[in-house]
Design brief:
The chain has helices at 30-45, 84-92, 110-113, 144-152, 154-163, 169-175, 187-199, 203-235, 239-249; strands at 5-9, 14-19, 51-56, 99-103, 106-108, 120-124, 128-130, 166-168, 180-182. It is an alpha/beta fold. It has a single domain, classed as 2-enoyl-CoA Hydratase, Chain A, domain 1 (Alpha-Beta Complex), CATH 3.90.226.10. The chain has a 6-stranded mixed β-sheet, with helices on both faces. The longest helix has 33 residues, at 203-235. The N and C termini lie far apart (45 Å).
Length: 261
């Protein structure tokens, strides 16, 4: 069984965190949520860590939530959270060190919305991002209902959400989801190089600066998470959502028109 997250700390204080379920395009199940949450928590407290870089194994960032994990409800947790996703989001929005992403291949769902919480995002030229929520009969997640509009503007955000279309590297940079694009084979090293430059500054100053950035959006992010949770509660398990999941598992296009009668 693969370790869901790989960690490597270099001598400059840069922690490279690699999502490691390549056979599933690094799709998140409960184990990967928990491993990523634990990694962020440990990195926040580790004085050796000045900056953190997220990437994915096997040529993809992450294809989002592993839909096959919906086959059974998650086991009860002892940390006060209903799911690993909830624990992850609580940790992510409190993470007060520079967070960078090196993105290749697909970034779907959380593979795209997570980027909105990163401070620097470098993408490969062949990247394909997507916000697939309406196509799954769901609503946005990870506070993206606020964060995407804050990053790209209201009309761009509405188009990306309502179309659920693929976003290539050029458009990701144009709208601001990504900072820069590089050849696929160069994106990780470019991100690590930027992280090492950032890591040369005092960690205390980096954290203090990140806290100011987090504070300016905290209320809106928390409100978005509450609204999204309510919307997910209404849509998850709906006929449209079930049709989308069944279509995915059966490898066919969903047919939502039959549900409009």
């Amino acid at each position: 069984m693969d370790t869901p997250v790989l960690k490597e700390l270099d001598g400059d204080g840069v922690l490279l965190v690699t999502f490691n379920r390549p056979a599933k395009k690094n799709a998140f199940n409960e184990d990967q949520w928990d491993a990523t949450t634990e990694t962020l928590s440990e990195a926040r407290e580790d004085k050796r860590v000045a900056a953190l870089v997220l990437t994915g194994a096997g040529g993809d960032f992450t294809s989002g939530v592993d839909l096959s994990s919906f086959a059974r409800p998650p086991d009860p947790r002892g940390d006060g959270f209903e799911t690993g996703y909830d624990a992850f989001m609580a940790t992510l929005i409190e993470f007060d060190k520079p967070l960078l992403a090196a993105v290749r291949g697909v970034g779907v769902g959380i593979g795209c919305t997570l980027l909105l919480h990163c401070d620097v995002v470098y993408v490969g030229a062949g990247v394909r991002l997507r916000l697939p929520f309406v196509a799954l009969g769901l609503v946005p997640e990870a506070a993206s209902s606020y964060m995407l509009e804050a990053v790209v503007g209201a009309r761009q955000a509405a188009e990306l959400f309502f179309s659920a279309e693929w976003i290539d590297a050029k458009r990701a940079v144009e709208v601001g989801i990504a900072t820069r694009a590089y050849p696929d084979e160069a994106v990780l090293e470019a991100t690590l190089a930027r992280a090492r430059e950032i890591a040369q500054h005092p960690v205390s100053a980096l954290q203090a600066t990140k806290r100011t950035l987090l504070a300016t959006r905290r209320t809106a992010v928390e409100a978005a998470l509450r609204q999204e949770r309510e919307g997910m509660g209404q849509q998850a398990g709906s006929p449209e959502n079930l049709e989308a999941i069944q279509a995915f598992l059966q490898k066919r296009p969903p047919d939502f028109r039959k549900l409009r009668k």
